[in-house]
Amino acid sequence: MDTVIPPPPLHTIPTIDGGAFPVRRVYCIGRNYAAHAREMGHDPDREPPFFFQKNPDNLDPSGTFPYPPLSSDVHHEVELLVALATGGSNIAAADALDHVWGYAVALDMTRRDLQGEAKARGRPWEIGKAFERSAPVGPLHSAATVGHPARGAITLAVSDTPRQQGDLAQMIWSVPEIIADLSAHYALAPGDVILTGTPAGVGPVAQGDRLEASIAGLGTLSVRVV
């Protein structure tokens, strides 16, 4: 098909064994760990899940995070990333893991001051969440190799100081439940990725900080704030 402008490049993230995973959409679940919900001033009871989105080209495997403009309060949030090989609508939770290609360590970097202003005005969060290079990401590990992690440490340190320490088992909504609920609202497809929430301990970063985000079985993502 002829296009009136050059088509934008396909965005991909690397895999640990070589090759690249093409990204279609990026879904994020909010407040999916009870302690984090409390630290953000919300009731951690098992309310229905809610979602927001980032853009595919927000995913950044470079190992650097440029401190973004228009903010003086940028926070780290370590998360498990789930990558889908197949999709569909109204996927049953019992079948959800059959759609997963693999997993990675990722960061949901957040312009907390801009997000807070949007919340106060009843506006969408994207100004605080979906800015350029706002999702540093490590290489994908295939589910065929690592299985489907449902428990294990998820941690983040800033310049060797521990900040976030949790366990995947503390998710309010599990990965199968997240996929099932998302698929009731959207037609999921190959190339979709999901960020599954962050444990307590989120906090600000500054230029020069070194972030070390780890998930058991998936290694460590090292990111320098520049």
Radius of gyration: 17 Å
Question: Which sequence of strands runs across the widest sheet?
Answer: 4-3-15-8-9-12
Q: How large is the count of helical segments?
A: 5
CATH T-level fold name: Fumarylacetoacetate hydrolase, domain 2
Tell me the structural class: alpha+beta
Round the mean pLDDT to the nearest integer and report it. Answer: 95
* Total tally of structural domains: 1
The biggest beta sheet is recorded as: 6 strands, mixed
What are the segments in which pLDDT stays under 50 over at least 5 consecutive residues?
A: none
- The CATH architecture can be named as Alpha-Beta Complex
Helix content, binned percent: 10-25%
Distance between the termini: 40 Å
Shape: globular
Name of the CATH first level: Alpha Beta
Detailed description of the structure:
The chain is an alpha+beta fold. The chain has a single domain (12-225), classed as Fumarylacetoacetate hydrolase, domain 2. Helix content is 15%, strand content 32%. The protein is built from five helices and 18 strands. It has a six-stranded mixed sheet with strand order 4-3-15-8-9-12. The chain has a five-stranded mixed sheet with strand order 6-18-17-13-14, with no helix packed on it. It has a three-stranded antiparallel sheet with strand order 10-7-16. The longest helix is centred in the C-terminal third of the chain and has 11 residues, at 175-185. The radius of gyration is 17 Å and the shape is globular. The model has no long low-confidence stretch (mean pLDDT 95).
